[in-house]
Every structure is written in structure tokens, then in C-alpha cells.
Amino acid sequence: MEYKSLIAKETWRTAVRDAPISQSTIQAAVPRLRCRTKEITAAVTAAVSFILVMASYGFAELEPMFALSSMTWSKQPGLVEKGTPVVGVKPRVAFIVVFRGIHTPITQEQIDAMYEGLRPTPDLRERVEVLDPQDIKSAIMGKGLRPEQRSALLQLISADLGAAGVLFVDVCGRETGFDVVGEFVDALTGTVVHKETVEVPGQAQLVAGMHGWLSLIP
User: Fold this and answer.
1) 8 A C-beta contact, residue 96 and residue 66
2) CB contact at 8 A, 198 and 176
3) Is it the case that residue 77 has pLDDT exceeding 80?
4) CA separation for the pair 96, 51 (Å, rounded)
5) pLDDT given for residue 22 in this prediction
6) What's the pLDDT tens digit per position in 107-146?
7) H runs (alpha helix) in 118-218
8) pTM
């Protein structure tokens, strides 16, 4: 009996498997398949949209950019105007801040605070003339230069603004905090005279530590 029962079951399975599917069955299944396809498509679209949004706002890095300011520092009396340095006067220097790999846009207020931290001390003014950030901003924007065009930038700083050296402060973003690279560069030859790198844990420490980069100026 058990053997006959197994044969009957197998015969039923074969009949079901090989039985032709009626047109009405197919028509009834099509709407369900279409509905399911739409659900899957909507889910995939939502997932892709979420990934694109996160890439745009959460993970994307801003391109390298100059941090420019319209700040002006009081001029020292008796100094020549912009142009080729004259023998016997104090050498000119320029300060330029660059952002690299930053995940969050930096506000103009934060940029101005960084240049305020770079404000020349009386002791430094005794040795050099420091160009105003406003002068640097006008010159760079007038030429449309990018941070990667360092040779053209040094040419602009030395020939058009008459500066002998440039203090670069490169702020490089990390997952947490910043790597900050300070370089004092000879504007005529491109030689790096002094260089130092420090790790900074956050924005507040970044602004507070700007004053220390003045020590790289010979």
C-alpha cells in the first residue's frame, strides 16, 4: 500500500509539472508581477538616491581652494606701494591659506578669523612688510588661479605684488580634525625655506593655532 501511495504521489507531481498553464492563469499573474516589479524598482531607486545624497553631503570632499579674505591690516608708514621691491626697504611677504580635502564648507567668518590669527606682530613688522589679505585676494581672483598652479601663483606674488616670500598654510581635512602644513617659500625661486606639519583636532584649535605659523618667517 505504501509503495502504491508513493507511485500515486509521484504521478500527481508529474502531472502538475507537465500540465499546460492556461491563458487565464497567466493573465491573473501579470498584474501581480507588474506590481511587484514596481515595488522593487521603487526600492532600488530610493536606495540609489540615498547613496547619492550621502555622497554629496556626507562623504564628498570639496576641491582644493584658496581661503581668501577682504581683511586689511594697517599699513606701515614710509613703505613703497605694490610693485618690484626697492633695494633698502623691508622685504614683502604674503600669507596664503589653502583648504584641501575638506568635507564641510568653511564660512567666510571662519576664514577671516584665521587671517586675524595671522595678523602680523609689531616684532614681525619691524623686519618685513606683510601684504594685506585683500591685496592677495584681488590678485588671485583677477588671474583666476587655482591652488595647484603654484608656479603661476609665485610668479604673480613676486612680479605683480613685489613679494619676496610667501607663507603658505595648507589645511588638509581628515576624518576628525586637520593636518596643517606651514611652508615659507622663496617667491622668486620656489624654494621651501621652512616647513612644519602639525595635527589639529578641531576648528577652534585650527583658528587658535594660526598665530604660531608666523615663526616660519625668517
Assistant:
1) yes
2) no
3) no
4) 36
5) 58
6) 999 999 999 999 999 999 999 999 999 999 999 999 999 9
7) 122-127, 133-143, 150-155, 203-208
8) 0.66
* Secondary element (H or E) of residue 189: none
Phi/psi at 55 (5° precision) = -65, -35
The residue out of 17, 41, 59 marking a domain boundary is 59
Find out whether 109 and 127 touch, Cβ atoms under 8 Å.
no
Cell 593655532 appears where?
209
Long-range contacts, stretch 200-203, CB < 8 angstroms, 24+ apart: 201/176, 201/177, 202/177, 203/110
SS3 category, 150 = helix
- CATH number of domain containing 122: 3.40.50.10610
Same domain, 100 and 134: yes
Cell of 143: 588671474
| CA distance to 60, 73, 137, per residue, from 56 (Å) | 5, 37, 28
Q: Which H or E run includes 31?
A: helix 23-54
Q: With a cut of 90, say whether residue 20 has pLDDT above it.
A: no
Are 78 and 151 within one domain?
Answer: yes
Asked whether residue 70 falls in the same domain as residue 55, the answer is: no
Residue 207's domain comprises 65-216
Say whether both 145 and 168 belong to one domain: yes
134 by Cβ neighbours in 10 Å (0-12 / 13-18 / 19+) ranks as middle
